[in-house]
Amino acid sequence: MHELIEKARRSVDGAELYWKRDHTISVRYENYRLQGMTEDELSSVALRVIAGARLGATYGVNPEEPGLIEQAKQAARFGDEAGFSFAGKADYESVENYDKRSEALTSADLVALCERVKERIAEERPEIPLFIVAGATKRDLVVETTAGAAGRDTSTRVTLGFGAPIKGAGIGVYKSDASVSPLDLDPALIDEFLEWYGWTENKSTPKTGRLPIILAPEAAYLFLLPLAAGLSGEAVEKGTSPLIDKIGERIVSERLTVIDDPLRDGDPGSRPFDDEGVPCRRRPLLDAGVLTDYLTDLRTGAALGRPSTGNGLKRELFGGGTETRPNPWPVNITVEPGDTPYREMISSLDEGLLVTGGMGFHSGNYPQGEFAVQAIGFHIKNGKVVGRLDRTMISGNIYKDFKDVAAVSRERRLGLGGMLPGGPVPYILVDSLRVAGE
Hints:
The structure is a single chain. This protein is of the alpha+beta class and about 450 residues long. Helix content is about 20%, strand content about 40%. It has 10 helices and 22 strands. The strands form 5 sheets. The protein has a 6-stranded antiparallel beta sheet with strand order 3-2-1-4-5-6. The termini are far apart.
C-alpha cells in the first residue's frame, strides 16, 4: 500500500488515491509532410478523503507532494456528505491490455507507420491535403484506498488517425484505428477512406421526410450516447432517466445487443478496475433490445441501494481527467454484429442516407434519447451513393426510432472516439429517421 494511504489512515475516516502516469510519443503529418514529434511524461494525482462524514478532494502531480492530506481534509470541511464508502479489497480479473512491443515503440517507428499510410494514399490522391497522426502511450494507473482496494494496472495504446478536409465543405473524411499492440497498415481502412473521399466530389440533398438511415461505426454515438445517459445511475437517482422501472423491458430492436466489455483482450479500452478501484466486469446493457441493468459508481450505487457496477470513471460528455469526479459511464461499450454485409445495406435502399457523423449533437435533448444534428455522410439513391450530404438535418428518438432496425452489419470496427471511446461496433440500418433536406 502506498505511504500516502498509510498516512491518511491515521487522520481521516477514509481515503482514496488515484495516480495516473502516461508516457506518450506522437508524430503529426500535414499535407503529406512531417510537421512535428512530441514525447511527454505526465503524472497526475487525485486524493479523496472522507472526514467527519464529508467528502473532500485535492489534486497534484505525484503522491509524495507535501500537504495533500491536509488539503483534502480542509476541502472536506465544506464538502458534500459522502453517503458512501471507498472501495474495499477485491480480486481483479486479468486482461490483456499491455504489449511490451508497444512500450518499446519510438518516434521513428511511428514515422514509418505514417509513411506507409502516406505512400498508399498518395498513389491515388496526391492532391488532397492529407494529415496523419500516430501515437503510442504507456499508462500506469494506481487506485488504492484505506478500505483495502489495491488496483495497479499497466496498459499500452497505439493510435493512428488520418484524413483530409473537403474543399469548400468545412468538414472532412477521417479514419482511425487503435490497439494495445503495434499497428500495421490496414489496407481495408485505406481503401474505405479513398472510396469515401471519392464520394465527396458531388453534393446531394435528399428530400424532406422519413428515410432509412445507415449509421456507420463513426456515427454510432448518435445512438450510444443517449443510451449511456439513460443508463446512468445518476440520472436514475435524479429521476430524469427515461429508463426508470424499465429493466427487463425491450426498449429498442431485438437486433441490438449492447455490451460493456472492459475485459476484452487486446482492446485499448479494456481495464481490470474503474477509477474508484472497483472491479470491472463484462455485462450486457441491452440483450436483444431488452434493458438488463443501469450503470453505477460508488456514490450513485449507494444512493440507489445497489453496489457499484465498476463504472465509476473520471469522464464527462466532453472530456474528463484526473480532476473530474467519478461518474457512471460505460468502460468499453460494444455492439454485437449482425449478419448483413454493409454493402448489401446500401444496395437495398431506393433512397436513404449513410451517416458518418453529425454536427451539433450537444444541442439536442440526448438525456431523453433525442438527437438532432446536421448530418455528415452520403446520399444513397437506387442502391448507390450519389454524393456527400449537403444542407441535411436528421433527428430522432432512440427509444422510438431504434425499435425498428432493419439490419445490423457483420462487419465491425473501432469507430467510436472522442465523446464515447469504446470497442467494435457495426453499421446499423434504421428503418427511418426524420430528414430535413429539400
